[in-house]
Amino acid sequence: MNRLLFSFLFFLIGIGLSSQAAAETWYVKKSSTKLQAEAKARSKVLGKLNKGTPVDILEKSGKFFKVSAGGETGWIFRFKLTKKAPSGSGGDGDVLGALGGQQQIAARESAYGSSIRGLSPVSEEHAIKKGVSPASIESVKEMERYKVDDDALDKFLEEGRLGAYAD
What we know:
The chain is of the alpha+beta class. It has 2 domains: 20-85, SH3 type barrels; 87-167, no CATH class. It has helices at residues 2-21, 111-117, 121-129, 134-145, 150-159; strands at residues 24-28, 33-36, 45-49, 54-61, 64-69, 72-77, 81-82.
């Protein structure tokens, strides 16, 4: 009888261990990814994870994954994770980072950098040579300085049913 009980307990422990071992490991795509208390975009932020951080997927709920990372457990929007470990080179998921580590291009001198980040010194010089007014140049610089706080951004996404709020 004891042998049967021992075998049954050993079997149950084996099942428990195998289900833990079956947890999938994914990776954070971008630095400052929010680890949240609930599977909601406006949930309390427990912490922020860096690009490449491995997370164990514990559960799925809609567009969120419950994960375990570094002793913390919380929820991350599914599209902030990837099955493949991100490469160590590049710029954290931006256009220039996608070019890879072999090609060193300064953002201030690339066409992509000037269109994404506003006027670089090179672009500003070019705009002046082409006769763009100082007021227009200053307007672009003013737009670059404009910041939207996280709560306003979350509200915008929720109202527009975008990102984590998309159907």
